[in-house]
Amino acid sequence: RSVVPTDRGRARIRGLRLALTAALSLGSLYLALRGAAPGEIWAALQGTRGEYVALAFGSVLANALAKTLRWRVLLGENGGGVPFSRLFAALFAGQLLNVFLPGRVGDLGRAYVVGGLGPGRTFTLGTIVVEKVLDLLAYAVLVLVLVVLLPLPGWVSGSAYSLVWIAVLVAAGLFITARFQQPVLRLLTRLGERLPAGLRALVVPRLQAGLSSFESLYQP
Length: 220
Hints:
mainly alpha
């Protein structure tokens, strides 16, 4: 039998969330400031300019809002029922988890949470893959601009060109997979026929859902 929380229960849950948020914030602040002398911190704060601090915070907020909007576009109609605020919160929570935990656990976490709200977890994970490839392409463009504008040591420019080639190859693979989605899915389905029936029934639909998330690359 399902249990509906009472008003007191909801208030307790909100209190626990607030306490957890405060604890995480204070813990992060401690980790950021440990080892620094209070006098040095105060001197640094006195030397700051408020307009630049505001600009820094504004740029972080604008970046997060832009990423959330991009994610909304990648989710398409499947994610139409997920509020923008939930996507924004999931994105921030995922970035926080990525700081503290290895293996990009935060990205898996937000795929699990947002996918459970309607789009499907495998489909949502596919949109995050597309997101990361677009990020990689953006980094490659920035690196090329940096190489053109500034004289860099040989080992830096060599690494930069390697990044560009990796970005191009990964992006090309993603676009080709999206363009020939059905042949790729048929190939993967044939390979999946070697699996036990129960495992095949579990894997093949998720492959189809994940590949369908790449279709957004060919939509205006």
